[in-house]
Specification:
The longest helix has 22 residues. The chain contains 18 helices and no strands. By secondary structure, it is mostly helical.
């Protein structure tokens, strides 16, 4: 260990204040060494001390430790995953997951997956999901596996679907392979993720896939596709969304109306007008809003 990391913080009588002073001293000295490019990333003792610093009661100090470990990078991964799996202090487990989000080391995926599915703390689980999302393609097979399983509750599947959508275009190859999965949860998450892929890349293939999904046999898939097309703002989808506002499923109709309003194409007005007299109040309200949106966009374009 370097000499500067061996130096002691000033003596303090109160044990809590003493630990805090030691933490302040440690994180300052490590950052100085990182700046000077003299930090020894093989020093296991110091790396463990830095991970312990994630339990500091002061939020800004925890953030400094997380950022410092993030600067150190993958050398810190083994110590962070150990803390994530076994540390008795939930604050450390939470911060370890958040720090792994910064590092995005694919080697952490199995440990993040275990924490996501098994930790008793909801913040640890959601932070682990965030880290899986940031890690990218390496997380995708595990996330698809969670969605395909009947063992996991809907809140876990919802986070898995969010992580897939966040990964977006990086997951595209896996998503195309999962399009015809037997699991409705997988297919629904894949359609939602393709919405993000299409936004990221203006990807014609993804947009066409969403349009095709408007006629899927499952109403949930049709709803997800209709909603995604509004986020993508893909004008060629307008005729297909106009057909979807007559769908037998109310949720599909609602999503299609909303998306037509977001896209703002005036050719949809003729089809939306009759919905102002629809028997469903929610359809009447959404149609009114969509018409107003289209007219506002049209006026703005006239300027």
């Amino acid at each position: 260990m370097s000499q500067s990391l061996n130096s002691k913080a000033p003596a303090v009588d109160d044990p809590i204040l003493r630990v805090q002073a030691e933490n302040d001293d440690l994180v300052q000295r490590v950052n100085e060494q990182i700046t000077l490019e003299t930090f020894d990333s093989t020093d296991q003792k110091v790396l463990k001390q830095l991970v312990e610093g994630l339990g500091d009661p002061r939020g800004m100090v925890r953030l400094r430790f997380a950022e410092t470990l993030g600067e150190i990078g993958e050398a810190a991964t083994p110590f962070l995953v150990e803390a994530l799996a076994n540390h008795s202090n939930v604050v450390v487990r939470r911060a370890a997951a958040k720090t792994l989000t910064i590092i995005s080391d694919p080697r952490a995926v199995p440990n993040l997956l275990h924490a996501f599915l098994n930790d008793e703390d909801t913040v640890v689980r959601s932070s682990a999901a965030g880290a899986l999302a940031r890690t990218g393609e390496a997380s995708v097979p595990a996330l698809l596996g969670i969605l395909a399983s009947d063992e996991h509750p809907q809140d876990i599947k919802g986070l898995a679907a969010w992580a897939l959508a966040f990964i977006g275009s990086e997951a595209a190859d896996h998503l195309y392979k999962a399009l015809n999965a037997a699991s409705l949860d997988v297919r629904c998450a894949v359609i939602g993720a393709f919405g993000h892929v299409a936004q990221e890349q203006s990807d014609e293939k993804s947009c066409n896939l969403l349009v095709s999904a408007l006629t899927d046999k499952e109403a949930l898939i049709r709803t997800e596709a209709a909603a995604a097309l509004g986020q993508v703002n893909y004008p060629p989808s307008v005729p297909h969304l106009i057909l979807a506002i007559q769908d037998a499923d109310l949720d599909v109709r609602k999503a299609a109306i909303n998306s037509l309003g977001k896209i703002g194409d005036r050719t949809a007005l003729k089809s939306l007008q009759p919905l102002l007299n629809d028997e469903q109040e929610v359809v009447r309200v959404l149609a009114k809003l969509a018409i107003a949106q289209i007219e506002r966009q049209s006026e703005a374009n006239d300027w």
